[in-house]
Amino acid sequence: MTAPSDGVIIELMRFDDLDAVAAIESVVSAPAWTRQMFESELTQNQFAMFFVARGGTRSGQNSGSAPSPLCGYVGCWIVFEELHLLNVVTHPDWRRRGIATRLVQAAFDQAASRGAVRALLEVRESNQSAREFYARLGFRSIARRPGYYTQPSEDAVMMSLELAPAPTMR
After folding, report:
1. Rounded Cα gap, residues 108 and 168, in angstroms
2. Between the CA of residue 87 and those of 7, 28, 109, 170, what are the distances in Å?
3. Which pLDDT score is estimated for 63?
4. Tens digit of each residue's pLDDT (9 = 90 or more) over 114-149
5. How far apart are the first and last CA of the chain?
6. What angle do CA 59, 74, 148 make, to 5 degrees?
7. Are 166 and 112 in contact (CB under 8 A)?
8. What is the reported pLDDT for 58?
9. 69, 80, 101, 149: which has the fewest C-beta neighbours closer than 10 Å?
10. Is 71 exposed, middle or buried (CB count within 10 Å of its CB: 0-12, 13-18, 19+)?
């Protein structure tokens, strides 16, 4: 769990986060993952791991006793030596604050601690802002998957990043 000065905390997703995650997903993605899809990943996929970003205050919001809002999440699979990023999502009210970068870093850290040496992802060819974000993190385009996405049909750009090995304990 990390909590920088802005009060946003990155931690593992809990079951009681599922409604809020599905709500964010419905705002930013079409077609969106459903609550049941997230629940299935958490309960039935041994390789799945999700982190959420919560806390801080949105501009114009009081920080009183209301529960900390969920402002983003990252989903990934860690399969042997590979981290596969499934989705990196920040609620529109929370964008441009470094939250997505911190979420991806949490996934990188967990993957490296489990021996992963590379990260992979697919992104819509038309999603230039996401492609630029991933490039800033060090990802490079390695392939194209024709017709990978539906609604609308679109090619995916496959991107890869070599992860730094986790330090060994002595």
Report:
1. 16
2. 23, 11, 17, 35
3. 47
4. 999 999 999 999 999 999 999 999 999 999 999 999
5. 24
6. 120
7. yes
8. 44
9. 80
10. buried
Spell out the residues 6+ positions from residue 114 whose beta carbon is closer than 8 angstroms to its own.
Answer: 78
Instruction: Tell me the residue type at 70.
Output: L
3-class DSSP state for residue 48?
A: strand
Which one-letter DSSP state was computed for residue 157? E
Mean pLDDT, all residues of the chain: 87
Contact indicator for 120, 158 with CB cutoff of 8 Å: yes
pLDDT at position 2, please? 45
Share of the chain above pLDDT 90, in %: 72
Residues 131/123, Cβ–Cβ less than 8 Å: yes
Distances, alpha carbon 130 to alpha carbons 89, 90, 136, 139, 153, in Å = 10, 12, 10, 11, 18
The DSSP secondary structure of 69-121, one letter per residue, reads PEEEEEEEEEETTEEEEEEEEE-GGG-SSSHHHHHHHHHHHHHHHTT--EEEE
Mean pLDDT of 25-31: 81
**Which residues are CB-neighbours of 169 under 8 A, at least 6 positions away?**
none
CA distance 33 to 125: 20
